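Researcher: Let's try something more involved. This one mixes different molecule types, so please make sure each is placed in the same coordinate frame as the others.
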Amino acid sequence: VKIAIDAMGGDFGPAVTLDGVATVHQKHRNVEFMIYGRESSVLPVMKITGLCTSSRVTFFDCSEVVEMDDKPSGALRKKKHSSMRKAVDSVGAKEAHACVSAGNTGALMGMSRFVLKRLPNINRPAICGTMPTLSKTTKLLDLGGNIDCSSADLFDFSVMGSVLSEYTENRSNPSIGLLNIGEEEMKGNEQIKCTADLLEKSPLNYVGYVEGDDIFKGVVDVIVCDGFVGNVALKASEGAAKMLASIAKEEFNRNAVSKTFGLLCTPIFRKLKGRVDPRNYNGASILGLNGTVVKSHGSADKISFAKAVEVALQEARQKIPEKIGVILSDSNHVKREEKE
Amino acid sequence: VKIAIDAMGGDFGPAVTLDGVATVHQKHRNVEFMIYGRESSVLPVMKITGLCTSSRVTFFDCSEVVEMDDKPSGALRKKKHSSMRKAVDSVGAKEAHACVSAGNTGALMGMSRFVLKRLPNINRPAICGTMPTLSKTTKLLDLGGNIDCSSADLFDFSVMGSVLSEYTENRSNPSIGLLNIGEEEMKGNEQIKCTADLLEKSPLNYVGYVEGDDIFKGVVDVIVCDGFVGNVALKASEGAAKMLASIAKEEFNRNAVSKTFGLLCTPIFRKLKGRVDPRNYNGASILGLNGTVVKSHGSADKISFAKAVEVALQEARQKIPEKIGVILSDSNHVKREEKE
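Model: All components are placed in one shared frame. Result:
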C-alpha cells in the first residue's frame, strides 16, 4: 500500500508530520510513503527521522504551500503545485492509495472533490470522525464539510458511515442514529423527518433519533447530522472536556497536599487520558470520493498524525470508496426512487 | 416577589420541586410562593417540608398534569387546568412575578407563548441557559425553542441574551459571539452571515464568530445560535462530561490501590464537581415574553430545582421582560430597518 503525505500541513509542518510518518513507517513494514513538501523544510527532518534512507519513502519537492487562512477556492485555483494538491493528485492518478493532510480543511475538501470527483450518486462528500464512548467508538458525520444538507445528502452520509463502520471497525450491520433534539417522532425539522423516512425504508440498520449526549454513550455505531451541527457538537464536547481537564489541574495544584495526591494518582490519570485522548481518535475521513483522503487535526502532534496515517492505511486496505460505490449502485434504484 | 411553581413537573414531581422551594423559601424571607399541583400529591410533601404552615405559601389544587410525552399542541388545547398552565396563567394575570416548571419543555413553551404573548417586535421566544467556563459563565441561546431561525430571530436572541447577561450577571456591555463553524468571515451559511451584518451595525457589543469550544472558554458573555445547534451543543458537552466522569470512576475503582487514592482525593473531586456541577447552572429562561418563565431540567433534584427558582427570582426582581421591551422599542427603528 502507498500513502501520500502532505508534509507541510498542520500547525507544525514537517517536524510533526514526518515524525508521525516515521512511526507508521517503522510499524507497518509493507507500506510505502510518498512525501510531498518544500525541499528546504522537509529534507532536514527526513534526515533526522531516518526516512531519507528508506527504500519505501519517496520525496517530491513542491514549490507551494496551502496556508491555513487561504480561501478554499483560491487554493484550488492558484496552488496547483502545493504539497496538498500534489498529494491529492497522486491519489487521483492511482499512484497512491490514500493521502493524509493536516492542512486547511476547506482547501483539502475542495481539491479532493475537484481531483478525485464524487462517487456516482453522491451529491456531497462528508467528513467522518471517530468519537470515544464508554464502550466502543462511534462514527460521527458530517463534521463540517457541508453546512446545509438535504435529506438525500443525510441519507448518503448514512450509507457512507455504515460502510466505514462495518469495514474499519468490524461492526456487522452497523446501527445508525439520526442526530435530533429529541427522541420523539414529532421532533426535528422537515429535513430530519424526511431523512428518517428514507432510512426506515432502506436496508440500513436505522434505529431512530439520537440526541447530543448519545454521541458519547456508544448507543449506535454511526450518528448522522449536517456539517454545521456535527462541527459544533465535536468542538463543544472538546471544549467541555478541556475545561474539565483544566479545572481538575487547577484543583490538584491548589496546595501541597493536593499536589501530592495528584502525583500519586498520575498512573490513574494516564490511563483515563489514554481512553479519551483525542490523539487516539485523530484522522477524519472525507467520504464520497473516488479515493481515500484523510484529514488530520491541524494541531496534531506526532502520535496524533501517526494515527491519522493509520486511518488512511486501513481505509486504503479496505478499499472503502469502492465498497461505498458498490452499495450505492447495488440498491441504487430502490433508494433513488424514495429519494426523489 | 411572588413566584408560581408547577409542583408536578419533572421526573420526581412534588417530592423534588417542593423540597427545592423549601430551600429558597428559607433563604429568601421576602419571597412568596404560589404552589400549583394535585392536592393528593402536593399536600403530604408540603407538610413534610413545613411549607404548609408558612404564611408566604399559597397552594392551588389543579385537576390535571402535563405529562412528559404530551404533545405541546395537545397540552395547550386540552390541559387548561394543569399545574403548568395555572402557574403560567398566574404570571399572565400579574398575580405572580415569575413561574418555574421542570415539566415538558414544548408544552411550557407553547403555554407561555399563548398566555403571556410575545414582546412587541419579538418573533420567536428563545430558551437561554447558563454555561460554566474556566472563568465567568456564558449565556447560550437558543437551547431548543426554535429549530429554524431567521437572521432577524438570531438578532433578537442577541438583544435578549445581552439584557439577561447585563442584569443578572452584572456584565456591563456584554460581549456577544455568533456560533459558527470557523472564525473566518467567509464561514457559515447565509443566515449566519446576515446576522453578523445586523449585529455589526447594531449598538450591541458584537465581537464576531465563535466556535463550539468557545462556549466553555468564557471568551464572550453571550453566545447566539439556533435552537437545534444550541440543543445539540448543550447535550453533546453534557454527554462528554458524563463520559469523562464515568471513565474516571471506572479507573479509580479498578483496584484496591486506586480506590484508596480515589478516597484520598474525595475533597478535591468535590471541589472540582462543585465548579462544573450542572445543578448549579440549572434554570433556563424563556425570553421574549411578557413575563418571566424558567424551565428547570426534568431530572432536577432538590438543589437543582432550588437553583431554577432562584433564577426566576432574580429575573423577576430585575424585570427582565420589561428591560428587553425597552431596548427593543428604544433602538427599534434603526434595527428594524436593517432587519428588513
